[in-house]
Amino acid sequence: MQMHFVFSDNVTLLFDFWTVQTLTGLMLSFVVVLLLTVLYEVSKVWKSNLLNRVLQTLPGTPDSAVSPPLLSDTEANFDVTSDPLFPGDLSETVRSLPVTHAPPTYQWWLLHSSVALLHTGQVFLGYMLMLCVMSYNAAIFLAVLLGSALGYYLAFPLLAKHPKPHCL
Length: 168
Description:
single chain, mainly alpha, two-stranded antiparallel sheet
């Protein structure tokens, strides 16, 4: 096996049955790999939007939007009135913030499972595309690059329409 990029219409991609020996087969493989790469880029946006929905359905109270990050038991039992770094009026504010531990809802579990499945699909597709690139065929490498650029170009406006409270 060569360890450098070649321009050839004779390539085997991923499996023995995906052996290309003609220019037409190479062009068809180019299109298939390009579309798989576009799908990979679009799946990133799907995952981000789904993750946003998971975070919105995170178990808690209606006041959870103003509550501090989840605290450990030792932090939750910390008495802010005994700390000289907290002024008196701030300690009252901190003490009034709710710290709740609600059980996850069915919707949250369903969305969380969907994110996990989508992540698994992304990993699978990413490794398959990496193996396509490792065929060292220059046309397939260009298909992955162009598919990534096209997928990002098409999917990014979908991501920008909905502001996210998290960073990916």
